[in-house]
Structures are given as structure tokens and as C-alpha cells.
Amino acid sequence: VSALLAQRDVFGDIMIELCRRDSRVVLVDGDLANSTKSDKLASAMPERFFMMGIAEQNLVGVAAGMATVGLKPWVASFAAFIATRDLDQIRVVVAQPNLNVKLAAHYSGLLTGYTGKTHQVVNDLAIMRSLPNMTVIAPCDGVEARAAMLAIDQYSGPVYLRLTRDPTPVISDRERPFEIGRGVFLRRGEDVGFVSTGAQTIRVLAAAEMLAGDGISSTVLHMPTIKPIDADALVEIARTTHHILTCEEHSVLGGLGGAVTEVLSERLPVHIERLGLRDIDGESGPNEALIDKYGLSTADVVRRARALLAAR
Amino acid sequence: MTAADLQKSGNDIRRHVLRAVHRAGAGHIGGVFSAADMLAALYFDILRIDPARPLWEDRDRFILSKGHCGIGLYAVLAMRGYFPIDELSTFDAIDSRLQGHPDMTKLPGLDMSTGSLGQGLSPGVGMAIGARYLCKDFRTWVMLGDGEIQEGQICARLDPVESPAAKWRAFGWHVIECDGHRVADFLSACKEAGEIRGRPSMIVARTVKGKGVSFMEHEYTWHSRPITDADLDRAIQELDAADTASRAGAP
Lengths: 312, 251
Known about the structure:
A: alpha/beta; B: elongated
């Protein structure tokens, strides 16, 4: 296991890299630069950094206007504010006109640094996925976040990039380029199929290793793109494993689990269960305690997988 | 065009709007008529535009933030030659490029999609920032309805106002300024606020972020961060010392 890496640190560094490569790239901040690490760009290239105050709805509109004159704006804020407070602005001036605005949604899911349910968002994937024209991406670690940002920069159109706050182990291959819309098979086996997204994939991969120690083989399909979803990869895992457990640090309603069941119910119906928050909001607490309480830990994944197999 | 010609063009907009709304069987009229003369003046005189090149990079931008008046904008765009006048008859019909509210993905000449009130000013700011960043000299115009400026997003864009007190005064509140660290000062402000009748009061308390611990004052990183054992001891000592000094100084 390599050193821990935080997606927000990667974000700050890659914003500088993108700005150096392309004079059209700019960042719009809502006075959270030291949290999102946008302050790295503010120090390195202040002319690319636009602090627009604590006015998140305005941020999105300003970015939309910038996109219409040919700039490539990134909006950096917390996922909770972007996905819910800015929803009408994103719908009307970003998604509907299909403008080239990138939404960097930091502090997603439960692990937001002792903030509680106002700052945690557990339904952003469901919300963003339902907007026409919107692409939704949730990388699992810092290495994949970097690759995703490079791919997003090359893609023209609205993108919601879901990032997690704290450092995590790195499981991604540094050499693998990021392909928007493509799932990644991290492990192959037959007894159970895991479909996972975001940082939850790290916990799922650990669970798959524990199960393997007990002679249970599994496939781990990581879905860093929630929309467009890689339907062919889903059909493949359904064909080879027969029992699927979707896993996400998000509500079980409408997120990855929703997307997977939508695709497979039409293309290859199999037994699917969804692990995630069961229509409930989070609370303040240490990361480990939150992950345990809300049933997202490696041990929880192992337990659910065993139950799935026992029920067949 | 002379001012009289422009005045006439305003009425041409009105005539087109009346016919289009009559044909569609629905549509906004009042707000369009309030805007018609200004739309004529903007599109026939003020704006630097070229209807043959609706995507010309150096054109002036215009955003109709009050998007429900879209039919008025469509009328003047047609009159300027962005599309045939006859197309105005398709307003609100299925498959029409003339949507009930302006859709920039469908019709040439629209610089922003609008319709959800209060949202037009922010993209205008983004366009203006973009013009400056790209060293271009086009201007950005945004037309706002007087109703939609009630939306918070518009006020968000009007910041920063010089002082919070001036802002609240401008909103018609009774404003009392005080030192938020002197309890006696704050108490008298509260008393004054309690005596004001007929309009709301706002106490603007001057405070210092991190007040009370020397190394935290004015240091924004203390907004939220873990505290070390050493910093904890120092901070508690400073607060204790301040209390001791204040007791010693008391009569």
C-alpha cells in the first residue's frame, strides 16, 4: 500500500497543471479555497482564480457566463452546496444550455470533517444523474482523481466531479488513462459481483480480499463514471457472477445502485442488492465511526456479500 | 435611426407580440410592453452586433434575465434579421425555436438561456469578467425585471457593499452599530432595538475573528482547525489572565 493521498490536494495541484496547459482554464471559488485546496492555484496563478464570495448560486451563473465567451471554468465548492443549493442554477444555465462548466464537488458523502448532515450530501449522484446533458464522475482515490480531471478538461460539456475530503490509500494504476463512461474491473471472480463507485471502492476491494482468504471469489467493477453508465460492463459482471452487490457512500435511492438496477433490469435481470445509506441523513463524527454506523465498512461489505450468497 | 424611429420600432415589437400571443393563445404581454422601447433602442442603436454572425466573438452580449418576456426579444431579433419575421407565428408551438422562455440552444442571437427569475445577472458578470480576461472590448448588458431583483442571487451579485450597516440601511432597516465584544455596548443596542416600532432593527456588531486569544485574532486559519496541546494551554492561560486582570481592575 502506497502513501495516503487526498483528492483535494490533487485537485489543487492539477488545477495549476490545467491552467498552465491552457490559457482558457479558470477557477471560480466560493470562499472555500483553503478547504478545496483551490488556494494552491490562488497562490500560483492568481489571475486564474476568481473568489466570488459566499454566494454559491452566483458562482454557477458566473461560470456559465464565462463558458459562453470561450473560457473553461471550474467551480469549486462543497458537494452539498453544489448539488442542492445550486440545483436550479445548474439546471437552467449550465445543463440545459449544455455549457462547458466543470463542477468540482468537494466534501462529498459522509466524510466531511466533523460537519454533520448540513454539509454531508448523500443524494448528489441521484440528483445530478437525473439532469439531461450532465456527466457524473466519482473517482476512488487521488490518482484516479488526477486522471479524471485531465479527461474532464478534454471533454466539452457540463461535468459533476464528486470528490472525497480526506487522504485515502491509492488503489488506482498510475499508468491507466481515465476514460469517461468506462468501468474498471479491479478483480475478477465468480461467486459475487461488486459494483462500486468513489472512495467506497477502496473499502470494497479490501472486502474482496478478505472474502478471497475464505475461498469466496469476487469480481470488483469500479464505476468512476455514474453517467453515462458503462452498461456493457454491467452486463458482463451480471453474466459472470449472477449475484450483484452495489456499494456507495450515498443513498441507496437513485445513485449507483439505481443506475445499475435500471440497466440490468432491462438488459440482463439478476439478483441485485444495494449497500449504501438507507434513506437516512448522516451526522457529525470521526470517519471510522461514521462508516461503521452507516454500514459502509469493509466488514459490512463482507457481511452483506456472505448474506447474499447464503440466500441463493 | 432617430429617436422617433426607435419609438416606432418599439411599437412594431408590440404589434408582433400581440399577434404572436394571440395566435399562441397564451403569452406574457405586460412585461414585454414595459421593455419594448428599450429593446428597440438596444437592438437598433446601442448593441454592437451583426445579425449575420450571431456567434461573432466580439459582439456585445445581451441577457434577458426576465425570460418570460422572451417574445419581445424574439420580435426585435426577427426585426433585426436574425431569423424570418414569419417565424414569430411559431411562438410556443411544438418544435418551434421560439420557446416560452429563451433557449440559447435553439435560436440564434440568444446569449443565455433564461426563465428562472433572478439568474441572469450572474452569467452577465461571468461574461464581463471573461471579456476583461480575454482582453476584448465587448460590453455585456443584462435586463432585469423589478420583481426578480427580490431574488437573493441578485443581491449576492451586488456585493460587496461598503459596510454591512450601509447595506441594511439601504434595505430600510433601523441600524444600530456597536462593539460586539463590550457586553454593556451590546446590551444598550439590544435595548434600543427593543424600543423601535414599525420597522425591523439590525444590530451590526463589530467583532474580531478569534477574539480573546492573541494568536488566533484576525488569523482566518482558525476558522476551523484542530488545536495542539501547547496551543490549548497558551489559549487557556491568556483567557485566565484576562479574567484576573479584569477582576483586579474592577471597583
